[in-house]
Design a protein that fits this description.
Blueprint lengths: L2 H18 L4 H7 E7 L10 H15 L4 E10 L2 E12 L11 E14 L2 E9 L1 H8 L3
Parallel strand pairs: 1-5
Antiparallel strand pairs: 2-3, 3-4, 4-5
Length: 139
């Protein structure tokens, strides 16, 4: 595997462990290109880097502040890295209209990230949102 592919895998690991788990803006700014497009958001048009930052920090991490990312598989091909991972944590804040329940979550996610010069430029993802909603539904 090329050095660039290994370096890209390291960037993806850093994004997941150092940004998603902490919400550290400096890590996000270091890794995510100003031209970033997120194709994982719902709707016809991809969202930009600020929308992605807002989702992870104001929505996701505020609902699951102790989130841990477990990367099960990590593959690189050319400028693309694919992960199969899980978000694990505790639902303590509101998420999609459901107040915090203190229930544990374990959500499966598959990400495809295209990198350029060591930065995220495009992102696609599929997450088990139905499974997440079932895990946090009130008793």
């Amino acid at each position: 595997m090329s050095t660039i592919q290994e370096s890209n895998k390291d960037v993806v690991r850093k994004f997941n462990k150092d940004f998603v788990e902490t919400g550290d803006r400096s890590i996000f700014d270091e890794i995510v290109s100003p031209e970033f497009k997120n194709h994982a958001a719902h709707g016809d048009e991809p969202t930009d880097r600020e929308a992605a930052f807002f989702f992870y920090t104001a929505i996701f991490r505020s609902a699951f502040p102790d989130v841990k990312v477990v990367i099960h598989d990590l593959f690189a091909d050319g400028d693309t890295v694919i992960t199969r991972k899980s978000y694990q944590g505790t639902h303590t804040g509101p998420f999609m209209g459901i107040p915090g329940t203190d229930k544990p979550i374990d959500v499966s996610v598959i990400d495809i990230i295209r990198l350029q010069d060591g930065k995220y430029v495009e992102h696609w993802a599929t997450a088990d949102m139905l499974g997440l909603m079932q895990q946090i539904k009130p008793a």
